[in-house]
């Protein structure tokens, strides 16, 4: 601006005859003005380019380094249903709650530590359909995760177990209501038994056991194991028929895998334990490490809380053989064809 002011003062000092008569001088002045405007524009563009470079080359990578960055979990050549993030979320949900698994996932990088992760989440108590659009979205902003789950597929039922002791009258009323269902009905139950039993003994019973919560009297949190998996990786197999030691190694392996991504685990938080305890950043990793150490000391994994399913008469017969303290009905279908009550 100082240059323009000096130029304007110089023009004002010129004799009028020169301005009127010397058109060459006028063109020369005009060219000088244009050159000065061009210099200023180039300086401005250069400053903007430097600022953009600083943002993209310095600030953007620093922000990614300072918070959870999911991109390394999506860099493998594997398909969306076998990338590391999908595998991690399967283990995460399996450990935290029953009936939830992830089919596949994809990542969109919005820059500056912001990402959108889309997942296809399955409710394994229902018929499973693959190939549908993603139904759960995770917005990752500077290491914090906000979940969009319009179907409530990943929400936790905090009072699934131990909501209250059932009286004998309550048990009789539940059985009477079940008796009214058609013989073809398929029932999913979450139940608690009075005394902990070895997991291998529970899953060997004449009923389909879908998920067990591993009993841990001292720990702040309790994790679980899916017994019959709906989606299995290349080296995985169902846990039905596994020995006590094999079941223990499966559970320990899951806990160790969760701890392999501490930033992600902290960002996700924990929803584990029979009372629906919820641990959020930065306290998430500690309870899982504690649980891992306590589990290593257990000779045999036991359970008091687990999920079963079967036809009406199978469920009624099974309930007559165990000492249970609470039951939650998760789902009732009028037949294996899938029509809900």
UniProtKB/TrEMBL annotation:
Q: Does the keyword Transmembrane helix apply?
A: yes
Q: Which domain of life is it from?
A: Bacteria
Q: Which UniProt keywords apply?
A: Membrane, Transmembrane, Transmembrane helix
User: Which parts pass through the membrane?
Assistant: 40-63
Q: What is this protein called?
A: Sigma factor regulator
